[in-house]
Amino acid sequence: MTGEVIAASFGKLIEPLGEVCHNGAGRERRSSSQPQSTGPGPVLASKKPAVIVISSHVVRGTVGNRAAAFALEVMGYPVWIVPTVILPWHPGHGIADRITPPPAEFDQLMNDITQAPWLGEVGAVLSGYLGNKSQVAAVSRLVQAVKNRNPDAIYALDPVIGDATESGEGRLYVPEEQASAMRDMLVKLADLITPNPFELSWLTQCDLPTNQEDLRMAASQLGVAMVLATSAPALMQGHIGNLLVVNSDSQHRAYLTEHRFVDGPPNGMGDLAAALMLGNLLNSGNGVEALQKTSASLAEIMMLAAKSGSDELPLEAGLSSIIHPRTPIVARSMLIKKAAVK
């Protein structure tokens, strides 16, 4: 995606960034994809667009689609759910046999969605964990179909391909050919991408960022309008950060939020972060405002999990934290070295 296209498509999202510290009031982003009335009764002007969420599904737990769809639905968005794999629970809890749709059947499902008469209702697509390489092309076709129908639609890519290990190194937990396909086919379509530091380093072929400066430089090289680096190094001790990097023709800026780190948080924080950022971005149209609210929600959910001793995200108990978090978190503006911008 060229800088001109990014600026044209995301002017509304990027333009008000400088106002966030002075104006906390959110503005509703209205999508041109709102369906027209085909029967009795008016279509409410405030109706929110549908979001297609493409990720893993578990029977027990709150990871993948279970986390993302829940968060978006309680925020008021109709959600179309596409499971890429089905598991009894997160593999981190023990042996979990997986069911992956056969490629031909998954392709047919996605083709059916691209031809759906309701596709105009869709204002965003969020993709997360994919079951195999063949699913990458199917996701790409669907994203392009949605954007062709609604040019204002947002594609949020959560590139679930790997993570850092306890030794400080990183590892892929999908085949390298699948990760490469995601880098080559999906990153260029993304308007928002939410990698962890290892995923960011792998996608940019940079060394694993271990400090804020390296992380900002790596994020500026992706060519995506908005990069939310989750689990980012924090400036304050005992904290963890979320770093938003805005890449546009008019500015290259970074915004950091921090909150206290909780040992051993449940799985699914990345899935939840991507969904919250997308939902808040659709709500306000303001990237920094969305970052602050997303970070506040994550901090409260993480603390709630720690207090309850839950091995899963306690989303049903944290509804208020998703919709109206109370934790005051203010983003810190940071510069990006010009040499890092391509």
Please give a structural write-up.
There is one protein chain. By secondary structure, this protein is α/β, with parallel strands linked by helices. It has a single domain (3-21, 48-340), classed as Ribokinase (UDP-N-acetylmuramoyl-L-alanine:D-glutamate ligase). The protein has helices at 3-14, 65-74, 103-114, 134-149, 176-185, 197-204, 212-219, 269-284, 287-308, 319-323, and strands at residues 50-58, 79-87, 122-127, 154-157, 162-164, 170-172, 192-193, 226-232, 239-247, 252-260, 332-335. The strands form two sheets. A nine-stranded mixed beta sheet has the order 2-1-3-4-7-8-9-10-11, sandwiched between helices. Helix 2 runs parallel beside helix 8 and helix 8 packs antiparallel against helix 9. The two termini are 13 Å apart.
Globular, elongated, flat, extended or rod-shaped: what is the shape? globular
Distance between the termini: 13 Å
Count of distinct structural domains = 1
CATH superfamily: Ribokinase
* Gyration radius, in Å: 19 Å
Helix segment tally: 10
Question: The CATH topology, please?
Answer: UDP-N-acetylmuramoyl-L-alanine:D-glutamate ligase
CATH secondary-structure class? Alpha Beta
Total beta-strand segments: 11
Order of helices and strands: HEHEHEHEEEHEHHEEEHHHE
Mean pLDDT: 84
- pLDDT under 50 segments (min length 5)? 1-45
Strand content: 15-25%
